[in-house]
Amino acid sequence: MSIPENINVDSSRSPVERVLLLAWPVLLQQALILAAGLYDRWVAGNYLPSDENLHSSYQAALSTVQYLAWSISCFAVLVSVGSTALVARFIGAGEVEDANRVTNQSIILAIFFGILASLVGLWKLPDLIALLKLDPPSDRLAIEMLQPVILFLVFQMIELSGIACLTGAGDTKPGMLVLGGVAVFNIPMVYLFFHGFWILPAFGHQGITLGTAVSHSIGGLVVLTFLIKGRAGLSLQRRLFKPQIILIKRILRVSIPAAIDSLSVAACQLWFLSLVNVLGKEAATAHGNAIGWEGLGYLSGQAFATAAAALVGQNLGARNPNEAARCGWTAFAMGSICMAVMGLVFYLCAEPMLRLFNPYPHQQPVIDAGVPVLRLVAFAMPALAAIIIFTGALRGAGDTRMPMVATWIGFLLIRMPLAYLFTRSTIDLGSLGTIKGWNLGLIGAWWAMFIDLAIRGALFFWRFSSGRWKKVVV
């Protein structure tokens, strides 16, 4: 079967052109997503609740909520990575019918896992929040804010899985249109649910996440519409929309290690957050605001990771591993430059960036804690670029086990032990007694993160340089 004309497998273009063609829609999409997240933080920081003493509690709760909402995208990896890798391989080999079969199975899996996660999530949410050690009443506020996100989770799973299939086919524009549209639509929705309008009641801070959940639900329906009508040679078809165990196993064989990797990152990030939350509401708020701005770097790197995943997978499917490597290195070089520029912005503009979320005099301790950590992470941008972009390239090749191992090394052997050492005055080692910690506060936690990123960045650079990913079978 011939490859549809709108699928980006034109090898006559240079690697730079091919990376840009795939990356720019995702870059725009990620910029809009970031803008929506920053708007949510702006709302939480600039609208005082009736009880001013609750202001820091709401901001600390939102920091935890946004961490957990980000974890949803990690859960979606259970379907999306295998779908992207298989669709890209089939498209590169000219087997569009098989790519179509994968797409239908991907949506079936998204529906199944989305419903399952909603049921378990709503049941266990109070226990999860308790583990994160938020001070009262931030813990109760976080539960209230997360409930809408979890309730509508199935639509976000469909949204991300469908976009992953289209990305594997080399068509990143639907992702830009849908996720970018979700981000743009999210801003007025958050405003309306926060303040209320006409017969719509004011939900207050819970309206922030309710607006986001409704926006993603609409995005999921739009993705279904794209696939029902057909896009980039992919379409949902009644004859294919039934479980095919062999294909499901192939998707999960690639996705499960990637999901373990992503969920390990999410779990360790939440563990790390629990250490920050113990430092107090000001530290938790400063941490969340700095992470929000760090997203300028993270999300721009994700755009080039998406391009790397699609191009590496397509070229391996076309049996052209050398071109796959060239595309991967090109994506890394371009992404590193972009993220380094973001790092310069963090260093030079840290204080006004954080003051945007904390305009009141009583919030000065938050700014004082946040400025040093945002300036520190500016120097980690090249290492973070290697982690993000080479993870995408390796996943496009189906090499999902090494990123998982690197994650465990980085978090369990480096970040978490150092975070305890740098943030605690004493560390209880059980039967081994106690040791004295450095008690550096929030900056200590971010030094632990910085060292972890530097070491993992080097590991990913080495893995992609080795070329072992070229021999992975999916």
TrEMBL record:
A GO CC term assigned to this protein in UniProt: plasma membrane
Record's keyword annotation contains RNA-binding: no
Compartments in which it is found: Cell membrane
Keyword terms, alphabetized: Antiport, Cell membrane, Ion transport, Membrane, Transmembrane, Transmembrane helix, Transport
Lineage top rank: taxon: Bacteria
Gene Ontology MF, one: xenobiotic transmembrane transporter activity
NCBIfam families membership: matE
Alphabetical list of PANTHER family matching this protein: FMN_FAD EXPORTER YEEO-RELATED, MULTIDRUG RESISTANCE PROTEIN NORM-RELATED
Protein name: Multidrug-efflux transporter
